[in-house]
Design a protein that fits this description.
Blueprint: E1 2-3, H1 5-12, E2 19-24, H2 27-43, E3 46-53, H3 61-68, E4 76-84, H4 90-101, E5 107-113, H5 118-121, H6 124-132, E6 134-138, H7 146-156, E7 160-161, H8 163-173, H9 177-190, E8 195-196, H10 198-208, H11 213-221, H12 225-237, H13 242-264, H14 269-276, H15 282-292, H16 295-312, H17 321-331
Parallel strand pairs: 1-6, 2-5, 2-6, 3-4, 4-5, 7-8
Helix pairs in contact: 1-2, 3-4, 4-6, 7-8, 8-10, 11-12, 11-17, 12-17, 13-14, 13-15, 13-16, 13-17, 16-17
């Protein structure tokens, strides 16, 4: 059975299926769907949870062993299979189908995967899961849908935004829903019970941007390593999600790379800024950074971003904040070879 994320809570009231698959490349919506499932499982007595990380060396036979093992702590167990971007080979597919053909009654299987390609959706294991369990496929919120999503989320948070505030938020977050949630939570704390305009949103940003992600990227572009280090410390202490910072840094690096490529082709800088939506004081910050760092270095930083993404998703070991700090300092003109991943 295939469901949309907004249909999940209602379907769970009808009972728990033997298996669930949450798949997609929108981190916030995936995270919220998984949290909804875990909460429902716990309410139904699934109080133990075993997490299996699938990598190249994962032994799929362990899934069957895990399902048949008697629990010492609880009668019902969640088996959480974190698939990530791994593709199932024939042996893995056969074992998963074997499990789905006779799921253990006191277990529930929760598979979390990145966006699946067309071949995976045509596979035997996917069809078996569709027949036996529930598939929640997460689709990104497209730019035309984003203002509506912000309004809906704000209403659920009892945060009142006028149209100009919604438009400004949509422009700032550029489709990153984790960043949207963070910004709206901040506004909720700063302006309880007030209908906010774009001016209020701008004021809130200027009041706090010295220690937010947008302030960090500006400090990096402006060649301020000490300031970058301080902001990163504050962001981490405040519980900022590494995925949000990674998104912002990768966006800046791609923007710099595009500007450099355009300048090398002889295109006017102002035209490039218009194309890349670079306005105001950021134009000079981008110009300075584009001159300071080479295209090869930017490509290397994008490779580092890809490795950080694997860390965040559990596919690689390590603390993502270490290479994130290295990426920021490299952008600021002070690379630290010890934290470089390439």
């Amino acid at each position: 059975m295939k469901l949309k994320p907004e249909q999940l809570a209602g379907r769970l009231k009808q009972g728990i299926a033997p298996a669930y698959l949450v798949t997609g490349d929108e981190p916030l919506l995936c995270e919220e769907s998984v949290d909804t499932l875990r909460k429902a499982f716990q309410e139904q007595g699934f109080t133990e949870r075993e997490v299996l990380h699938v990598d190249g060396g994962f032994k799929w036979e362990y899934l069957l062993e895990c399902a048949s093992a008697l629990s010492l702590f609880a009668e019902r167990k969640i088996i959480e299979l974190r698939l990530g971007s791994q593709k199932l080979q024939k042996n893995a597919s056969d074992i998963l189908q074997q499990y789905l053909a006779n799921p253990a009654p006191d277990n529930v299987l929760l598979i979390i995967a990145d966006k699946l390609d067309g071949s995976a959706k045509k596979s035997a294991w996917f069809k078996a899961l569709d027949k036996t369990g529930v598939i929640v496929e997460i689709w990104p919120v497209e730019p035309p849908q984003l203002p509506g999503w912000i309004k809906q989320r704000a209403a659920a948070m009892d945060l009142r935004l006028d149209d100009s505030a919604v438009e400004l938020l949509a422009e700032r977050i550029e489709g990153n829903l984790l960043a949207a949630r963070q910004e709206m939570s901040k506004l909720q704390l700063l302006y309880p019970g007030k209908t906010l305009s774009a001016e209020d949103v701008t004021d809130a940003v200027s009041d706090s941007s010295r220690f937010d992600i947008f302030g960090l990227t500006d400090a990096a572009l402006g060649g301020q390593p000490q300031r970058c280090t301080r902001i990163i410390q504050v962001l981490r202490q405040e519980g900022t999600e590494a995925a949000v910072l990674l998104w912002a840094l990768a966006r800046e690096i791609r923007t710099l790379h595009a500007v450099q490529a355009g300048l090398n082709k002889g295109l006017p800088f102002d035209n490039l800024c218009q194309q890349q939506r670079i306005f105001g004081k950021r134009k000079q910050l981008v110009r300075g950074c584009a001159k300071r760092i080479s295209p090869a270095a930017l490509e290397g930083l994008l490779q580092e971003c890809a490795e950080v993404d694997r860390m965040i998703k559990g596919a690689s070991a390590g603390d993502p904040w270490v290479p994130l700090t290295g990426i920021v300092l490299h952008l600021s003109g002070h690379p630290l070879p010890l934290v470089s991943l390439v």
